[in-house]
Sequence to fold (291 residues):
Amino acid sequence: MPKHCLFFTIIGIVIVVIVVGVTVPVVVIRKSHSSYSPLPPTNVSIILPLYTYPSRAAWDPVYEKLNNHSYSGIQWTIIINPSNGPGDELNANYRVGILRLNAAYNVNVVGYVFTDYGRRNIAEVETDIAKYASWGLFAGIFFDETPQGDNQSLSHSITYLKSITNNVRKTPGFIRQKTTVIHNPGTTVNSELLDLGQNITIIVEDTFTNYKSLAARQVISEMSANTSRTRLGCLIHSVPGNETVDNPLMDLLSELSQNFGHIFLTDKSSNYYNNYDGIWNNFINSTSLMY
Ligand SMILES: *[C@@H]1O[C@H](CO)[C@@H](O)[C@H](O)[C@H]1NC(C)=O
Ligand SMILES: *[C@@H]1O[C@H](CO)[C@@H](O)[C@H](O)[C@H]1NC(C)=O
Ligand SMILES: *[C@@H]1O[C@H](CO)[C@@H](O)[C@H](O)[C@H]1NC(C)=O
Ligand SMILES: *[C@@H]1O[C@H](CO)[C@@H](O)[C@H](O)[C@H]1NC(C)=O
Ligand SMILES: *[C@@H]1O[C@H](CO)[C@@H](O)[C@H](O)[C@H]1NC(C)=O
Ligand SMILES: *[C@@H]1O[C@H](CO)[C@@H](O)[C@H](O)[C@H]1NC(C)=O
Ligand SMILES: *[C@@H]1O[C@H](CO)[C@@H](O)[C@H](O)[C@H]1NC(C)=O
Fold:
């Protein structure tokens, strides 16, 4: 082998060693971090559907968190649903229970009103709104099954949602200085539906698996880029895991916090707005660590 050939072979080997030596560790380091969110987690508030009846100890898991100083940084929006809506009268158990929730300054209690995807008569919706307001215990309204504005129904959805939202704003009797109006289409919607005077729109109400596989994930991040994440919420059930030591919930919360300001997570796959155990402790603890 001629001398200069040997020289170039050695140079070549040196280059290969350098390239491999530098790139392989970089790739490995990148890989080991790829399961983590690239952006730092940020504060989120809890949006809690508390649909269970306040019999003796039923709301204790909630009071326990509200009274714990470790969690005093968390903001809560708590949805109450006495009778698939307000029902006729609010009984003493509800009054006592809601007063206990309201005693925490960081809680907004809102009343559940369904809209049947914009098909429910607006006069009936307004009767429900007036009833919640008249009780002097609620800080706003959670509209469920709000219209999703597909194709030709977009203009109807806009008119309907503006009308019921304005109705809450002009109805006296809601407590707290700032009234909260929430729309729950439960899925990503036309961006024109995000700015109709409501404070929060729930654009995911689904299982963890569906959220993870959602073709709409791209749409979600576009929506949160268009609208502040503080105006978007998600309710995710059937979340796996009950670990407290190695905490995968923290990763999920970090990821969600990039796009959502208002979050509820539960491991339940049925009656998920009536049970506060399983990942409940872990969810609250992890949320408190996001600040
Ligand atoms: C309050 O929360 C902290 C942190 O999770 C926990 O260690 C503590 O036991 C809780 N205190 C009470 C009285 O539940
Ligand atoms: C409207 O939406 C429905 C349901 O997504 C769909 O079946 C229908 O084809 C759409 N109509 C038009 C005109 O786009
Ligand atoms: C909700 O939005 C209205 C209208 O923008 C605002 O006046 C109100 O303060 C907001 N409520 C909360 C709790 O921020
Ligand atoms: C974001 O806003 C732009 C401009 O208003 C709009 O064209 C686009 O559809 C919006 N994207 C989403 C996902 O809402
Ligand atoms: C996060 O904290 C900021 C500053 O305190 C506050 O303005 C914002 O509303 C908080 N976001 C949520 C989703 O709680
Ligand atoms: C979660 O773990 C705790 C502690 O091991 C246990 O008491 C509880 O029953 C578990 N919950 C579920 C839903 O697995
Ligand atoms: C809260 O979460 C942290 C971090 O995952 C963990 O170290 C701590 O033990 C948890 N505390 C409770 C009371 O679950």
Q: What stands out?
A: The beta strands are 45-50, 76-80, 107-114, 140-144, 180-184, 200-207, 232-237, 262-265. The first strand starts at residue 45 and ends at 50. The mean pLDDT is 86.
